[in-house]
Q: What sequence folds into this?
């Protein structure tokens, strides 16, 4: 009798497992995008590694606990027998162990978190290139200053600037060179926005009255999608932008081209823009 | 055992409507709370379906961007402020006096006031749809300075939430006094039913946190109408200040929204496992720890503001995961070596444990600050909150409904329909919310009225199908309720072989609750009475 019970349990567990796997498989096309993109900056790669470790821990915890739950409800379901189970009120040893396991996990994860946090948040050096990012309802203005384009390119003392502006469906493109540390200086004068580049795995809010900035070193050329991630009003959904990471030579050429734009570029009507910022 | 017809009740007979409008009976008020909150659950649910319909396909124009912002703001406001917080007050009102063997709440008239503040608040909040500019549209978080720009619907929203806060605060004081002063003879604090413990900790959180929200909302109201300069940097205020004060309330509020749900399933799981709750005291201490730590994690909603001491709030957030995890082990330990029956309440209890586990695990991703930088304000967070508040709290609400329905209304909800309800809801829920993890990781920001990425369409469509399946799952529930009301009240005192005092009186109980109180020698007085041989060993 007892063997039959165990076999029945195993069969039930197997049935549920197969059903679960089948439904996951049926889903798999939709789930092809599972997981985080790998990240295209030094910082993003560190953060992605942290994500993978966290995901692994999460998967183990999920499978262990969910598995235990499924096992328990199958194994200890009431059969035809009406006997009363032993009235166990608790166990100090068991309770200490299951407080200890989560404590150990969170201490380990916290330590790793702080290590990655220190790398990600270390900021820019004095002479690193910087881009001023102005968010507004509902678009972006990216401003480059000629005295702030990194040690190779900067013209010290120059007050020459050019900007790219875009709003709504005409989203602006921010251009930066690969393998160079770039600082983004974020500012907003109306409401809170958030500068979110998906493949940077990073976002930082533009808070009126605050000087928020962060720095990254992009390692892969390409065009990356950005969004405003903080609800900012009626057209929040349309406050998109792209970041184009280019080879350093290409960036130099682009800068010269933008400077050639002269007054037009300064006023924000470069070839990548048409929408003009509302007053 | 008890007789319903008490001498004297006839003397106070009044027309039914007048009776319901003027009652101070905790049971009737509890029922009013439940009707009120289920109504707004339906309203919030319909708003959710509008949201999901808009997002089903890319570049949708089912509703305008402006309407969308109003819809999702009111969905969250209705679900949080008009459903989930007061629904616990409803269960608490009905059950706390019964579970501790009291005749009523400590302050019955204040109890009536707590309830009657709700309908005007609900009307005010939704009256926003009738005024120029529409309802509140800055999200339930009402971040400033954005909230300064909304139309007068925002003022109605602010007043409404302040009124709801007053209701919560006085209700909290009432629950605390009731549990501290009115327990039956023999019922020490550590023999109180777990549901009462979670209501007590919830009440403490409400008493401490809700006035902070009222202060913040008052400042926002002054900012908007009388030229205050609290939160708008353009007038010398500080936008981050709003977030700090708001989340100082609203993070504890997340526990206000889930702790009583944990209490409910901690009543259900032992009954249908035929075992006491494994580690009763550990569970109580874990509840207190969650309540205490709940006040030290608010800024984890603000990791991307650049204005937060990141390691501190990360550490505290990790820490609060520990007592939460312990509770899951308590429930597993209770079922382990038990004798489990899969009644509808138990299915919802098991569903809670299973789904809340996911809501706990995906919450840990946000505690890891560098991961939060990516997933904050994306659909990943929307998935998280729904695994906690739907997979957790709503499961517990329905579990509680099926479990206490025989006690409250004297009739049983049909088990077959209940199982259909549970099954459809569980599938619909996971179909609606699991894909949101993937959308969030792939970068879909939350609160966007539309999107153009074709890669997001399949997952969004799946989510929309799931949300409508949740809607469909309510059909068997409603049929079960209607069918139950068409039958006579035939339920015995204790149809489930339960543990706590409310099952020691008639179903439904008489006005004064108990003709005689069972002896209380542990946290399971009714179990002890049924099984004198097994009694003891508790607390």
A:
């Amino acid at each position: 009798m007892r063997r039959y019970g165990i076999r029945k349990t195993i069969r039930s567990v197997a049935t549920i497992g197969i059903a679960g796997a089948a439904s996951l498989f049926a889903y798999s096309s939709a789930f092809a995008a599972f997981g985080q993109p790998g990240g295209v900056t030094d910082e993003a790669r560190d953060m992605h590694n942290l994500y993978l470790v966290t995901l692994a821990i999460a998967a183990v915890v999920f499978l262990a606990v969910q598995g235990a739950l499924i096992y328990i409800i199958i194994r200890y379901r009431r059969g035809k027998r009406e006997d009363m189970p032993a009235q166990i009120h608790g166990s100090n040893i068991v309770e200490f162990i299951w407080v200890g396991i989560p404590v150990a996990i969170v201490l380990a994860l916290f330590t790793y978190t702080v290590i990655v946090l220190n790398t990600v948040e270390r900021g820019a050096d004095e002479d690193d290139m910087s881009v001023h990012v102005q968010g507004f309802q509902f678009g972006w203005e990216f401003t480059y200053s000629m005295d702030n384009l990194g040690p190779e390119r900067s013209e010290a003392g120059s007050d020459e600037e050019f900007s790219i502006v875009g709003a709504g469906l005409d989203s602006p493109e921010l251009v930066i060179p690969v393998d160079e540390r770039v600082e983004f200086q974020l500012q907003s004068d109306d409401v809170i926005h958030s500068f979110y580049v998906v493949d940077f795995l990073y976002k930082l809010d533009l808070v009126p009255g605050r000087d928020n900035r962060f720095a990254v070193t992009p390692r892969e050329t390409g065009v990356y999608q950005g969004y405003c991630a903080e609800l900012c009003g009626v057209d929040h959904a349309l406050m998109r932008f792209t970041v184009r990471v280019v080879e350093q030579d290409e960036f130099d050429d682009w800068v010269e081209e933008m400077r050639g734009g002269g007054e037009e570029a300064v006023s924000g009507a470069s070839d990548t823009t048409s929408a003009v910022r509302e007053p | 055992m008890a007789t319903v017809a008490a001498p004297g009740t006839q003397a106070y007979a009044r027309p039914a409507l007048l009776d319901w409008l003027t009652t101070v009976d905790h049971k009737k008020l509890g029922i009013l709370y439940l009707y009120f909150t289920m109504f707004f659950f339906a309203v919030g649910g319909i708003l959710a379906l509008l949201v999901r319909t808009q997002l089903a396909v890319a570049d949708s124009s089912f509703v305008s961007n402006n309407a969308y912002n109003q819809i999702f703001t009111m969905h969250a406001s209705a679900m949080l402020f008009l459903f989930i917080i007061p629904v616990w007050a409803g269960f608490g009102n009905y059950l706390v006096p019964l579970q501790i063997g009291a005749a009523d709440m400590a302050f019955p008239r204040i109890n009536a006031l707590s309830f009657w503040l709700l309908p005007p608040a609900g009307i005010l909040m939704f009256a926003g749809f009738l005024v120029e500019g529409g309802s509140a549209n800055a999200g339930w978080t009402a971040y400033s300075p954005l909230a300064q720009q909304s139309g007068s619907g925002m003022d109605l929203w602010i007043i409404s939430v302040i009124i709801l806060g007053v209701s919560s605060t006085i209700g909290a004081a009432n629950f605390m006094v009731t549990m501290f002063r009115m327990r039956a003879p023999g019922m020490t604090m550590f023999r109180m039913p777990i549901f009462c413990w979670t209501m007590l900790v919830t009440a403490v959180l409400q008493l401490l946190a809700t006035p902070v929200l009222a202060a913040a909302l008052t400042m926002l109201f002054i900012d908007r109408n009388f030229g205050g300069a609290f939160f708008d940097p353009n007038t010398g205020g500080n936008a981050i200040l709003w977030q700090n004060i708001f989340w100082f309330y609203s993070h504890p509020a997340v526990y206000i929204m889930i702790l009583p749900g944990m209490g409910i399933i901690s009543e259900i799981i032992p009954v249908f496992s035929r075992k006491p709750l494994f580690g009763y005291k550990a569970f109580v201490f874990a509840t207190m720890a969650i309540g205490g730590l709940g006040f030290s994690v608010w800024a984890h909603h603000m990791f991307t503001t650049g204005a937060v001491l990141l390691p501190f709030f990360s550490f505290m957030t990790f820490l609060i995961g520990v007592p939460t995890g312990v509770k899951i082990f308590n429930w597993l330990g209770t079922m382990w070596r038990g004798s489990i029956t899969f009644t509808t309440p138990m299915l919802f209890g098991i569903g809670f444990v299973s789904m809340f586990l996911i809501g706990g695990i995906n919450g840990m991703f946000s505690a890891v600050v560098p991961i939060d930088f990516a997933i904050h304000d994306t659909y990943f967070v929307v998935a998280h909150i729904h695994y906690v508040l739907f997979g957790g709290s709503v499961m517990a609400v329905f579990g509680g409904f099926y479990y206490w329905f025989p006690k409250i209304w004297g009739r049983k909800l049909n088990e077959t329909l209940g199982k259909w309800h549970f099954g459809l809801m569980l599938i619909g829920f996971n179909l609606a919310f699991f894909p949101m993890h993937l959308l969030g990781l792939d970068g879909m920001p939350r609160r966007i009225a539309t999107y153009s990425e074709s890669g997001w369409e399949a997952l969004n469509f799946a989510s929309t199908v799931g949300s409508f399946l949740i809607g469909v799952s309510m059909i068997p529930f409603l049929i079960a309720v209607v069918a139950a009301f068409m039958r006579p009240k035939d339920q015995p005192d204790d149809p489930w072989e339960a543990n706590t005092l409310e099952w020691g009186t008639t179903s439904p109980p008489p006005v004064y609750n108990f003709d005689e109180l069972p002896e209380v020698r542990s946290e399971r007085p009714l179990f002890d009475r049924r099984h004198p041989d097994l009694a003891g060993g508790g607390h």
Observations:
- Chain B has a mean pLDDT of 93.
- The two ends of chain B are 27 Å apart (CA to CA).
- Chain B touches chain A through 89 residues (CB under 8 Å).
